[in-house]
Design brief:
The chain is built from 6 helices and 18 strands. The chain has 339 residues and is α/β, with parallel strands linked by helices. The chain folds into 2 domains: 73 residues; 165 residues, Putative cyclase (Glucose Oxidase, domain 1), CATH 3.50.30.50. The strands form 5 sheets. A 9-stranded mixed sheet has the order 6-18-16-10-12-14-15-9-17, with helices on one face. It has a 3-stranded antiparallel sheet with strand order 4-3-5, covered by helices on one side. It has a two-stranded parallel sheet with strand order 1-2. Helix 5 packs parallel to helix 6. The radius of gyration is 23 Å and the shape is globular.
Length: 339
């Protein structure tokens, strides 16, 4: 494969270009140069207790090619620490290239979220031998029209799906009959976990061993194993000869009292081993597992939190999640250590 140096505007563009170049026979992008984008606008803000303020030719740094009026208004209110903000108006908005002057906007305060989940769609095969989801209309917009006023329609979806679909979380009930199911695991086990990314490229080894885990602060953290295997998602290659943790690595993580272990691979166990020792060890210790993660290459090695929240189902041990990392600022994104 060939390497490529390319100019990108943001992390979303980089992810798209990486996939495009992988499909074309290139290696992933090794270096990028980010074009700074800013916005200029006028605004009017009214206060719910009376009065208001105005601004002309206001300029802000943004992440991406555009920003909504709502996000601009929220940024102004947060940045100026305004209270009792009522109606807001943004006008004369212009997007242009100019070096950034300060922190980026477009996020909630100083926080920035990275989506670590694959998209679930009709017919997606996550695990060979398990049925793909069927996603369709229960009530279509056309059929709903007869129930509402002219021009008012709704869609109600119908999903037929096994729990092990897309990016999903395992809790103890998945492995143990009397283990906690999704409804019994406390919310703080799913959300805002102090996290660390440990990179073990699949191009060097498929087995993640104890030696790969040493030298890190692990206790009470979510451990995200970044192998880069997600680049094979939704291809035949994804399902076989994939990265996995060894039994000894699982024992080590258990002894270090980690809270959760995630991996961007087809399975955290070596699927040739029918005993599934990693699931057995981790779930036996009530350490949650998240499989089929993606985009871990965008994360720093630490300094972020991880969340993967499933619905509150009784009698279910596995379910898809919207896994995400929360960073304190956009500059923490790992744009220069791609794979």
């Amino acid at each position: 494969m060939q390497s490529k140096i390319i100019l990108c505007q943001n992390a979303s563009s980089l992810r798209f270009i990486n996939r495009l170049y992988l499909q074309s026979g290139f290696h992933t992008v090794k270096k990028i140069f980010v074009m700074d984008i800013r916005v200029q606008f006028d605004f009017e803000i009214e206060f719910t207790n009376g009065g208001g303020i105005q601004g002309q030719d206001f300029r802000l740094d943004i992440d991406g090619n555009d920003i909504s009026d709502k996000d601009l208004a929220n940024y102004i209110a947060n940045d100026m620490r305004l209270l009792m903000v009522g109606r807001t108006k943004i006008f004369n908005k212009k997007i242009f290239y100019e070096p950034h002057k300060r922190k980026l906007t477009g996020t909630s305060g100083n926080q920035y979220f990275i989506d670590l989940s694959h998209t679930i769609e009709n017919g997606l095969v996550t695990y060979k031998g398990l049925p793909a989801p069927i996603i369709c209309d229960y009530l279509s917009r056309e059929d709903s029209a007869k129930f509402y006023a002219p021009g008012t329609t709704f869609q109600i979806g119908k999903i037929e799906m096994v729990a092990n679909t897309g990016t999903y979380i395992d809790c103890p009930f998945h492995r143990y009959e009397h283990g906690k199911d999704l409804s019994e695991v406390e919310l703080n086990c799913f959300t805002d976990l102090d996290a660390i990314r440990i990179s073990v490229p699949h191009t060097k080894t498929l087995a993640v061993t104890v030696e790969h885990l040493k030298g890190y602060e692990l206790r009470n953290r979510a451990i995200l194993i970044h192998t880069g295997w997600d680049e094979n998602w939704n291809t035949e290659k994804y399902y076989e000869h994939h990265p996995y943790l060894t039994k000894e690595a699982a024992d080590y993580l258990k002894d270090c009292d980690v809270k959760l272990v995630g991996i961007d691979s087809h399975n955290i166990d070596d699927t040739r081993d029918k005993n599934r020792p990693v699931h057995t060890i981790l779930l036996g210790a009530e350490i949650l597992i998240v499989e089929h993660l993606c985009n871990l290459y965008l994360l720093p090695h630490d300094g972020f939190t991880f969340s993967a929240v499933p619905p509150k189902f009784k009698g279910v041990g596995t379910f898809p999640v919207r896994a995400m990392a929360k960073l304190q600022n956009r500059n923490s994104i790992n744009d220069h250590d791609i794979r």
